[in-house]
Write a structure and sequence with these properties.
Elements (H helix, E strand, L loop, with lengths): L11 E4 L6 H17 L6 E6 L5 H14 L3 E5 L5 H10 L5 E4 L8 E7 L8 H9 L13 H7 L2 E4 L2 H8 L5 H6 L3 E5 L8 H6 L5 E5 L21 H9 L4 E5 L6 E4 L5 E2 L1 H15 L6 E4 L5 H9 L3 E4 L3 H11 L3 E3 L5 E3 L8 H15 L3 H12 L3 E8 L4 H11 L3 E2 L2 E7 L4 E5 L4 E6 L5 E8 L5 H11 L4
Parallel strand pairs: 2-3, 2-4, 3-6, 7-8, 7-9, 12-13, 12-14
Antiparallel strand pairs: 1-5, 4-5, 9-10, 10-11, 14-15, 16-21, 17-18, 18-19, 19-20, 20-21
Helix pairs in contact: 1-2, 1-4, 10-11, 10-13
């Protein structure tokens, strides 16, 4: 029996050279090939891309070899490529799906394997279960040819997906107005795939883009991991103040997520960012349509939904839930607490580049600094405060889940508990409309405790109570 591989919230991730090995990548690729054959996509084109982590280009090449060995034709990106660009290439090339070698925001020790369908979105949970069930026990059951043979036969073709995606952006946002606005923008690409994109898209005008962490460095210096939340973004926030810039845009390692810092070097958290982007689409662009959110993100969206008379749908955590719901409802926007946002008229995939451009467009159209935009949002829905604690845990997960379920707290942070939702984790709803969520990560041995409340002075006590309920304090 080979190493047991399991798909989490967004594909498979593992520690390089321990469980994330060439042979295991080949086994998972064989499973994807089997699945695609079952879905009647035999012999079609599949896009393969990768990030800037250690050996990612090598893992992508071995992925292409297995796909070609199974009779598929492969478009292999010619360089490390942002996840949203890979997703758009599926549509541009009329491909049946994609495999993306990336561990996104995980620590530098890790790499990962994301799969996407013919629409450019995450494959739904049922499909992931089927792929996992197809993983052969031994690499001896994997079909493959060499990369050289594949290229010689024309079944593996290297290509540049950037031009098509860049042209597509012109249909979604007015880049010329951003170029002409005279903004000073700091971009922190976190040593990842987003490096150079904003400089290229917005160069040649009065707006100036200053990039940091824009080369390849698989150890991710000056941050714990390429995740756009504190303390990983502290250097970017300081740089924004030191350069007297107007805004900080932070892309995670594979550029599917975007974080924001204001002109004062203050982080705009992920829930605030989602509220602002939804407000921008509804108020500034006048769009209408459903909003899709995971249960771990902001209740400001429900308030905006009532104000603008649009439905809001809540899903489990991960784009394997968000993307199918967006497609089903023709949603205007979909997103999650981790800083990933997807938009209608684009692929149903998180897109940190487009999210950043929309944020800049909002600044220009409303003629406001980021801190002022947040005040506009709070004037509309009231102030909301959020924080999160991530803690590694040991022991049996089911025992810990049982403990949480049996706790039955009547108050959390001094606020009355009025409901408990167990769709994905344990979400306690409180009397002010706020919430506290305890959830196990789908990709790492981590338990997360989140909260959102209208009471700024109660954030710490809510999180402390959550840690106690989880048996972590």
């Amino acid at each position: 029996m080979g190493y047991a591989i399991h798909f989490g919230t967004d594909g498979w991730r593992g520690v390089i050279a321990e469980d994330y090995t060439y042979d295991n990548v080949r086994r998972v690729t064989q499973a994807f090939a089997n699945y695609m054959n079952e879905q009647n996509h035999a012999g079609e084109w599949i896009v393969v891309g990768y990030d800037k982590r250690f050996a990612s280009e090598g893992f992508a090449a071995c992925t292409a070899e297995v796909l070609a060995g199974n009779g598929f034709k492969v478009y292999l990106t010619n360089a490390a490529t942002p996840t949203p660009v890979i997703a758009y290439a599926i549509l541009d090339k009329n491909a049946a799906g994609a495999i993306n070698i990336t561990a996104s925001h995980n620590p530098p020790t890790d790499n990962g394997f994301k799969v996407r369908d013919h629409r450019g979105g995450a494959i739904d949970p049922k499909g992931l279960i089927e792929i996992e069930a197809n993983i052969p026990d031994s690499v001896d059951d994997v079909k493959r040819i060499t990369i050289q043979e594949g290229e010689q036969k024309g079944s593996i073709v290297r290509f540049d997906p950037a031009p098509a995606y860049s042209k597509h952006l012109l249909d979604l946002v007015d880049l010329e107005s951003i170029k002409a606005a005279g903004l000073k923008i700091v971009v922190d690409s976190m040593w990842g795939n987003g490096a150079g994109w904003f400089s290229t898209l917005l160069g040649g005008g009065k707006t100036k883009v200053y990039e940091i962490h824009d080369t390849r460095h698989p150890l991710f210096p000056e941050m714990q991991r390429p995740e756009p939340i504190p303390p990983n973004i502290d250097v970017g926030l300081k740089t924004t103040v030191d350069t007297q810039s107007d805004v900080l845009l932070i892309l995670d390692g594979d550029a599917d997520r975007c974080g924001f810092g204001d002109e004062n070097g203050v982080f705009i958290n992920q829930l605030q960012a989602y509220g602002l982007l939804a407000y921008y689409l509804l108020e500034v662009r006048g769009e209408r349509g459903p909003i899709v959110k995971t249960l771990s993100t902001t209740s400001m969206l429900e308030k905006l939904g009532k104000i603008y008379d649009v439905p809001v749908y809540q899903t489990g955590v991960g784009f394997k839930f968000v993307a199918p719901k967006m497609i089903e409802t023709d949603a205007m926007i979909g997103g999650e607490e981790s800083g990933g946002y997807a938009f209608r008229d684009n692929v149903p995939e998180r897109d940190g580049i487009l999210a950043g451009l929309y944020f800049l467009d909002m600044m220009i159209r409303l003629k406001r600094k980021p801190s002022e935009l947040l005040n506009i949002l709070f004037d509309k829905v009231g102030a909301h405060y959020y924080d999160r604690v991530d803690t590694t845990f040991k022991g049996d997960r089911k025992e810990k889940e049982k403990r949480i379920l049996e706790a039955r707290p009547t108050t959390i942070g001094g606020l009355k508990v009025v409901d408990l939702i167990t769709t994905d984790g344990f979400k306690f709803i409180m009397e002010d409309g706020g919430w506290m969520l305890i959830r196990f990560s789908g990709t790492e041995p981590i338990m997360r405790v989140y909260c959102e409340t209208t009471h700024q002075d109660r954030v710490k006590s809510i999180l402390d109570d959550g840690l106690r309920i989880a048996g972590l304090k």
